[in-house]
Write a structure and sequence with these properties.
Shape: globular
Radius of gyration: 21 Å
Number of domains: 2
CATH superfamily of the largest domain: MFS general substrate transporter like domains
Structural class: mainly alpha
CATH architecture of the largest domain: Up-down Bundle
Strand content: under 5%
Number of strands: 0
Helix content: over 70%
């Protein structure tokens, strides 16, 4: 049953989602520099440690998301949002207190293991809003996440330059995460009822997962989310280097590379709420198919472009369709599963999301090193087309009878 105050809950959670996404992404610009400050030498070792520290968060989050999702269905999704927010607050502050790279790695890993914010936030919103507003609501949640992801690196770089100490940036980030937790605790009200079937809920987690795994829609949607995030993040390691090949004036290289990232992000920001709202009318599966096909159509030509202007236009086009994939996929998941299962289901599909975020950049870098930059865009385009075909043949719009 939807929460009577669902609109206030939605907008508050969009703000909290933005704050937490900002906290996750704020250390990106200076993380390698902080590793150097911790005494790591030579630069080749810095690259290795930066990659490990940046990715371990996603890997551990993928492993533990189903556990937190299971707990969310038993104790409430708001409690899991608060737990994850406080975990980010605590471990980010500890990262700022790190005395060596091993401590930094350990605190980053623990933050991934105890966070699970995205799954809890999506499950909370997905169980509080009316069923016919799922696409609209999750589209705005995606926008909040994207805004935080765009502002975070910029703010992190500015704070690092202004404060002249990377540790202070971690402390400021910790305070932002605490603010998100306070907002959620003070103003968000969850309409939650504990499951009446206590016996089934008391079964071991692996039994519950096995039972849920027999649902005909779970594996197809797991693959959809995994491939979507693989495609979204697979090109990121090569964009700056590809822009360098296209640029004739190296003085504007950093600006052009930043514009390539920003073009996709701004288009994504514009498209997510609109496509989410349209999916409530046209159907989630149809909009998901359109979004996947459109993203593929704009990705594949990037392998053959020789102009920075063409490349920026294509990146903007990709962003317009990427903005519809994850919100409509999550709304479709919400439609296919009962409300009392959504915490656990979103926990499982969040594992798919984090695996895609982990495997995408790794694969993109390896493909570029072995076959060149065009091969990355062709591979990602093929992945999007396969995902579209997968949705067409394996994903249904309504729960099975």
């Amino acid at each position: 049953m939807p929460n009577p105050g669902w609109q206030r809950t939605l907008w508050l959670m969009v703000v909290v989602q933005g704050v937490m996404s900002l906290a996750f992404s704020i250390s990106g610009p200076f993380l390698p520099l902080f590793i150097i400050q911790l005494g790591v030498r030579p630069l080749s070792r810095v690259d290795v440690w930066a990659g490990l520290i940046a990715s371990v968060n996603f890997l551990l989050a993928a492993l533990v998301s189903p556990v937190w999702g299971n707990i969310a269905d038993r104790v409430g999704r708001q409690a899991m949002v608060l737990r994850s927010s406080l975990a980010v607050c605590a471990f980010t502050a500890l990262m700022g207190l790190s005395r060596n790279v091993y401590q930094l790695f350990a605190f980053r890993a623990l933050m991934g293991a105890f966070s699970g914010f995205s799954a809890a936030a999506i499950a909370l919103v997905g169980t509080q809003v009316p069923e016919d507003r799922l696409g609209f609501s999750l589209g705005w949640m995606a926008s909040g996440q994207l805004i935080g992801g765009l502002v975070g690196p910029l703010l992190g770089g500015v704070l690092a330059d202004r404060l002249h100490d990377y540790r202070y940036v971690f402390f400021w980030t910790s305070a932002m995460a605490a603010l998100g937790a306070i907002l959620c605790a003070s103003f968000v009200r969850e309409n939650f009822q504990k499951p009446a079937d206590a016996t089934r809920r008391a079964a071991p987690l692996w039994h519950q997962l096995a039972e849920l795994g027999r649902h005909p829609s779970l594996l197809p949607m797991f693959v959809v989310v995994l491939l979507a995030q693989f495609a979204a993040f697979g090109v990121q390691p090569v964009i700056s280097l590809f822009v360098r090949e296209l640029m004739h004036d190296p003085r504007w290289l950093a600006t052009a590379a930043g514009a390539a990232f920003a073009a996709t992000g701004i288009a994504d920001l514009l498209a997510s709420p609109w496509l989410g709202k349209r999916s409530d009318v046209l159907g989630y599966r149809r909009v998901l198919l359109i979004s996947l096909l459109g993203a593929a159509i704009f990705t594949i030509p990037q392998a053959f472009t020789h102009s920075i202007g063409e490349f920026l236009a294509l990146r903007f086009g990709v962003g317009m369709f990427l903005g519809g994939i994850l919100p409509t996929a999550n709304a479709l998941i919400g439609r296919l599963f009962a409300a009392q299962q959504r915490g656990q289901v979103f926990g499982i599909t969040s594992s798919a999301m984090f695996l895609g975020m982990f495997l995408g950049p790794l694969s993109g870098g390896l493909i570029a090193a072995r076959f060149g930059f065009p091969a990355v865009f062709l591979t990602i385009g093929a992945c999007l087309l396969f995902n579209c075909l997968w949705v067409w043949t394996r994903v249904q719009e309504s729960p099975p009878a």
